[in-house]
């Protein structure tokens, strides 16, 4: 299957990309067309994670794309990372989620905060997809407010003991390596590498989701799990650790959701030119044109914000607040585009024969995870007033 539409680029943002960016984007675009689009509707309908895609994504360079080649990764820049996320989420948010978690929430903390031994042990296998990762921050009673987490790690001399639970964790049921955030005996947040098979560690699946149905979600339960001392990330302490990882993942989402929005908009544009009512294509009605024009304006805004964020990130000048603003804006516009596109398709808009309803349902998770819509608004509010409205 090939995507049979022209990708919107109203402000010629392609001219701002390098040849390498376009080559990376084309490769992922072609892979999504060939491998994801033919199976994703059924995976979603059946609530099944398409595990066979993992190794292929490794071969594609979708895991840790910006981590150096020394660790078996592609060593690309941040713009390429963003473009990869955009193309994957055009396929489905679940596929982008898998890559976001693996890259920014598992490989990135090992690369940035880990020892050289930890990097060499885990990064090459995570890059190929031989190992799958998960990131445990959210707890049953602490979602937006992770600073109050109750999961604890206690020093027992030769080892640590980990107790507590994490909830709503992407990839949990199949994860080989989990980056878990817990407080130590002094109440300081530490990052821990928890490995599948450790005694006292279980990861049951969370079922009955109406969103991200092609992604696996689960809990991480720790009942006196013995953690070897070499499994602590040595170079980070405090909430800044998980939040730094979240900045990287939120950046990827800011790009990713543009892919979902493009898929919805382009599908609706094409449909509106073909669907005849009152003896005319519905695209000829002013109300349809208003919807399409507003959708393209929103996508263009999102593209410009993501591109600028990418260049600031490449120069290491981006602020977490800029990322929050872009994640919030771009997810919001993607949801609006999905809802308007669904209307343009009428009854067909709810059919699995088109991707729109699937994207719309997925985006209801994306607007909540990695910081809710309102939390990102308050981060912007804090940044511009200097006054925190949390708590
Ligand atoms: P606060 O006092 O503001 O900050 C604590 C320390 O962290 C620093 N910091 C950041 N550093 C890097 N990047 C960021 N984005 C940062 N935000 C804050 C801050 O400078 C401070 O450093 P230091 O050195 O002074 O200690 O902390 P707070 O407790 O007031 O919390 C603030 C708040 C609400 C913004 C934060 O906790 C938050 O972002 N809450 C939302 C939680 C969240 O996003 N959870 C996501 C869980 S993971 C997930 O959803 C994965 S989905 C995966 C998928 O499938 O794609
Ligand atoms: P709550 O924090 O309880 O918030 C509920 C509502 O209250 C929200 O509207 C929120 O905006 C609002 N609210 C909270 N505090 C304030 C305030 N101070 N002011 C105003 N409004 C406020 N987490 C992980 O750690 N790892 C993962 O891999 C992961 N994957 C996920 C996958 C899926 C499919 C989903 C749905 C979630 C995932 N999460 C993951 C969890 C996600 O990060 C949390 O759901 C999110 O941070 C919000 O937490 P909560 O659901 O507990 O909502």
Task: Give your account of this protein's structure.
- It is built from ten helices and nine strands.
- By secondary structure, it is of the alpha+beta class.
- The chain has three domains: 13-132, Acyl-CoA dehydrogenase/oxidase, N-terminal domain (Butyryl-Coa Dehydrogenase, subunit A, domain 1), CATH 1.10.540.10; 134-231, Beta Barrel (Butyryl-CoA Dehydrogenase, subunit A, domain 2); 240-385, Up-down Bundle (Butyryl-CoA Dehydrogenase, subunit A, domain 3), CATH 1.20.140.10.
- Helix 6 packs parallel to helix 8 (320-344) and helix 7 (286-314) runs antiparallel to helix 8.
- It is globular and about 80 Å long.
- 50% of the residues are buried.
- The model has no long low-confidence stretch (mean pLDDT 97).
- The protein binds 3-thiaglutaryl-CoA and flavin-adenine dinucleotide.
């Amino acid at each position: 299957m090939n995507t049979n539409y022209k990708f919107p680029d109203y402000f010629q943002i392609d001219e701002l990309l390098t040849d390498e960016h376009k080559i990376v984007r084309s490769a992922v675009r072609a892979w999504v067309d060939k491998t994801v689009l033919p199976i994703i509707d059924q995976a979603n309908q059946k609530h099944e994670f398409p595990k066979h895609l993992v190794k292929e994504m490794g071969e594609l360079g979708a895991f840790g794309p910006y981590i150096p080649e020394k660790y078996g990764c592609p060593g690309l820049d941040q713009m390429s990372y963003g473009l990869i996320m955009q193309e994957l989420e055009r396929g489905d948010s679940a596929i982008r989620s898998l890559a976001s978690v693996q890259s920014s929430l598992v490989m990135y903390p090992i690369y940035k905060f880990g020892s050289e031994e930890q990097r060499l042990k885990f990064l090459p296998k995570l890059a190929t997809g031989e190992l799958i990762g998960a990131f445990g921050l959210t707890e049953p009673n602490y979602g937006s407010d992770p600073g109050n987490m109750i999961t604890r790690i206690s020093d027992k001399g030769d080892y640590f003991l980990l107790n507590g639970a994490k909830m709503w964790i992407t990839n949990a049921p199949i994860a080989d390596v989990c980056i878990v955030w817990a407080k130590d005996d002094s109440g300081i947040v530490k990052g821990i590498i928890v490995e599948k098979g450790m005694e006292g560690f279980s990861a049951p699946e969370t079922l009955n989701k109406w969103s991200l149905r092609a992604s696996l979600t689960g809990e991480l339960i720790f009942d006196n799990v013995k953690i070897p001392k070499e499994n602590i990330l040595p170079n980070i302490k405090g909430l800044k650790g998980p939040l730094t990882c979240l900045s990287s993942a939120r950046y990827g989402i800011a790009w990713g959701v543009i892919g979902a929005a493009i898929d919805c908009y382009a599908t609706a544009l094409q449909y509106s030119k073909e669907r005849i009512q009152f003896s005319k294509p519905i695209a000829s009605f002013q109300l349809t044109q208003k919807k399409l024009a507003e959708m393209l304006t929103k996508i263009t805004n999102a593209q410009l914000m993501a591109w600028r964020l990418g260049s600031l990130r490449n120069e290491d000048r981006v602020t977490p607040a800029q990322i929050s603003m872009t994640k919030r804006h771009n997810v919001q516009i993607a949801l609006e585009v999905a809802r308007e596109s669904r209307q343009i398709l009428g009854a067909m808009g709810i059919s699995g024969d088109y991707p729109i309803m699937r994207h719309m349902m997925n985006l209801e998770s994306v607007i909540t995870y990695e910081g809710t819509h309102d939390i990102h608004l308050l981060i912007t509010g804090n940044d511009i007033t200097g006054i925190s409205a949390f708590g």
